[in-house]
Amino acid sequence: xxxxxxxxxxxxxxxxxxxxxxxxxxxxxxxxxxxxxxxxxxxxxxxxxxxxxxxxxxxxxxxxxxxxxxxxxxxxxxxxxxxxxxxxxxxxxxxxxxxxxxxxxxxxxxxxxxxxxxxxxxxxxxxxxxxxxxxxxxxxxxxxxxxxxxxxxxxxxxxxxxxxxxxxxxxxxxxxxxxxxxxxxxxxxxxxxxxxxxxxxxxxxxxx
Length: 208
Prior knowledge:
With 208 residues, this protein is α/β, with parallel strands linked by helices. Helix content is 53%, strand content 10%.
């Protein structure tokens, strides 16, 4: 049996076009499954953080107003993301965000020590292993896309937004996870999809 295609992680700060890109990628693979000789389309792991917020009665303001609740929220997000990935087994997927997001937001709004503690969670090694085996795309912030939808946490200003992006880069590098930055200058959705698919193809061919 041929190995599963590499999973894809679309990550980055809020309002960087991640969900739009994940939806477009899923549609691309649905229409092109025969081209890549895929047995099935990818499963979508949709924004786990939003589900945790709703199910556990957190709000976006908890992240900035209470360090205790913020840290608990990020721990729950890590657990939920790891569970979602593990349950899929060999089913390949595209993930809208990742468990790394929780550490990044803890670093930004709680503290570096607490962010480090989250990386000692039992699920962390498996998370890193799966991301190393997959394709990781870090979306660069684009000020035109910063929209408050009433659910997500909004940065106070652009410098805070860019700092989140920097935390992602540092965390990926610190865990030895290869990644590709999707520049904000590439705004056309078709071009963004093409960049991700190109990286995915390289990984897929290289892993055979």
